[in-house]
Amino acid sequence: MKINPVDVLKEHSLKHTKQRVRVLEEIALDTVAISQPELEKKLGKEIDRVTLYRILNIYEDKGILHRIMDMNGTANYAICSTACTADHHHDEHVHFNCTNCSRIYCLDVKVPKMTMPEGFKAATINTTAYGICEKCSLQVKEN
Amino acid sequence: MKINPVDVLKEHSLKHTKQRVRVLEEIALDTVAISQPELEKKLGKEIDRVTLYRILNIYEDKGILHRIMDMNGTANYAICSTACTADHHHDEHVHFNCTNCSRIYCLDVKVPKMTMPEGFKAATINTTAYGICEKCSLQVKEN
DNA sequence: ATTTAAATGCAATTATGTTGCTTTAGTTGT
DNA sequence: ACAACTAAAGCAACATAATTGCATTTAAAT
Ligand SMILES: [Mn+2]
Ligand SMILES: [Mn+2]
Ligand SMILES: [Zn+2]
Ligand SMILES: [Zn+2]
Fold first, then answer.
1. What architecture is the B5-142 domain classified under in CATH?
2. Which of B3, B29, B37, B129 has its CA 20 to 30 A from that of A89?
């Protein structure tokens, strides 16, 4: 997802600050999601922890980032598709969480439709597959 | 899921302690999953926090409980089906997390099969639907 | 340039989870 | 029933994650 942080801020009428630009830049570096702890490690010298939390929350609210929880309950962030808005995240793709390297991928796989029991009304469905990712599969073969 | 805590402990060759029995009793009270914070609130006077964590971890390892992470990264626990073992959790059903009352249900809906991209090998797939549960739907109608 | 409002940074607090070590209590064998 | 052994519980300390209130800074608007 190739984005221009400054434009993104404008589009969502968010004040342009160097902290906000840095966070977006950092997350946009990779298509793989990045965790809050990783972000804090990378940006902790430039940006206060609290500010980072606030920026991530705002980005999620605005539909700029989407948050994927891993099995340890750690928040991971990835750039949303441009179709996402504050009201509705178009995040109905499957995520893949590698149990080896713990990378989280946004797959180009739609979450399958499924029928809810009587009385249950699903608004969004979240699917995460756990297993070995392509990079880790390759590494195993090499050895 | 009607279970006898004492039997469960025997079956998994776990020492029978009053703390372990209490935790299982508490979780078995409801088919709906219960969160770690709720458990701590209910049992905190009888059982030390650390002990509770250790019991929950052991139960998960042994395949007695399964852990469902909600969207806030909070651990929720429910009794596993009897088919679950330490090696393999038969947890391939869909979970439903009510966005109103935040209850987590284990639905009798299988996680649909889906194809992973080249190179990705999924071992388990986790699906959680978010929306309004049956109880909350009813309450809305009443008003 | 001045004003205004919003965002940042900092300190303090709460929640969550883990580790090492001591004490307690089940279990096993006599 | 008792002793011996071992696993589990409890406690203190620590680590990390997340939130809140408030003072200060900075971007945007006039
Ligand atoms: Mn995604
Ligand atoms: Mn379940
Ligand atoms: Zn991997
Ligand atoms: Zn509900």
1. Orthogonal Bundle (1.10)
2. B37
The C-alpha R_g of chain A, in whole angstroms, comes to: 16
A28-61 pLDDT tens trace: 999 899 999 999 999 999 999 999 999 999 999 9
From the annotation, which residues of B make up the binding site for Zn(2+)? 98, 101, 133, 136
Q: Is the pLDDT of residue A104 over 90?
A: yes
How far is the CA of B51 from the CAs of B45, B54, B59, in angstroms? 12, 5, 12
For A110, the 3-state DSSP assignment is strand
Q: Is A69 on the interface with B (CB under 8 A)?
A: yes
Nucleotide nearest to B41 (CA to C1'): C15
DSSP A75-95: EEEEEPPTT--SS-----EEE
Strand D bases within 7 angstroms of protein beta carbons: 7-13, 16-21, 26-28
The H or E element containing residue B52 is helix B49-62
pLDDT tens for B102-140 read 999 989 888 999 999 999 999 999 999 999 999 999 886
Whole-number pLDDT of residue B92: 79
Task: Provide the residue ranges of all domains of chain A, joining segments of one domain with +.
Answer: 5-142
Is A106 one of the annotated binding-site residues? Answer: no
